[in-house]
Amino acid sequence: MLIRERRIYFIAVVITMAAGLASRRYGNMLPAFLHDHAGDALWAGMIYFGFRMVWIRRSKAWAFLLSFVFSWVIEFSQMIQMPWLNELRSTMLGALILGHGFLVIDLVRYAAGILCTFVIDHYFLSNRRSLYEH
C-alpha cells in the first residue's frame, strides 16, 4: 500500500513539475494571471507533493506546514547575497530551486499553491480510499 501511495505522489510531483516548467516556457500563451502566478504556485505544490511522497506516514497537515515553512525559508533566503550562493542561483537548477530575488507576492503564490495541492490531496485520497473499499 505504501509503495502505491508513494508512486501516486511521485506522479503528482512529476506532473506538477512539468506544469510548472511549461508555465515558464510557454507562459506567453497563458492568460496574464496564470502567466504571472502559476509557476511559483506550482513550484510550492510540487514541494508539498514531494514531502507527502517522502514522508508518506506523516499527516497532510504536517506536509502542508513543512511545505509552507520550506518555501518561505527559500524565499527569505533570497535576501542573502553571498558570492557562492549567487553563483549557485545563476545555474538553471539553482534558479529553479532557490529563485533570484525576494518578492512578497511570491509568499502569497506559495501559500496558494500549497493550499490548492493540499485540497487536491485531501479529496483525491478520500475518493481513492472509497474506491479500494468496493
Automatic annotation (TrEMBL):
Keyword Membrane found: yes
InterPro entries per the UniProt record, alphabetical: DUF2809 (IPR021257)
Signal peptide: none
Segments crossing the lipid bilayer: 7-26, 38-55, 62-80, 92-120
Annotated keywords: Membrane, Transmembrane, Transmembrane helix
Protein name according to UniProt: DUF2809 domain-containing protein
